[in-house]
Specification:
- The chain has 84 residues and is an all-alpha fold.
- It has a domain of 30 residues.
- Helices cover 52% and strands 0% of the residues.
- The chain is elongated, with a radius of gyration of 38 Å.
């Protein structure tokens, strides 16, 4: 009974090892060929131009102007001492 189990496990291990080997070889060949996206990136130029703002519209810095600076409130140093 033990002999039959060892034969089955040996055959199963050999099958798994062969499947792993073939899968590894197949993936390495696919990796050597390169992917479709890498070939497309080599063929087409990269788009780096920015779209200018339409005429008549404010730029983001002009759309949200900063409020004018406020006068600082007087501090305790600026206070006039009271007469007693």
């Amino acid at each position: 009974m033990a002999r039959g189990g060892a034969t089955f496990l040996t055959k199963l291990t050999a099958f798994c090892a062969t499947a792993f080997f073939l899968t590894s070889l197949g993936l390495s060949f696919v990796g050597l060929r390169g992917s479709v996206s890498s070939q497309l990136m080599k063929e087409s130029p990269a788009v780096t131009d920015t779209v200018p703002a339409p005429v008549g519209e404010a730029s983001p810095s002009e759309a949200n102007p900063k409020p004018p600076p406020t006068e600082p409130e007087p501090s305790a140093k600026d206070a006039v001492p009271a007469n007693k």
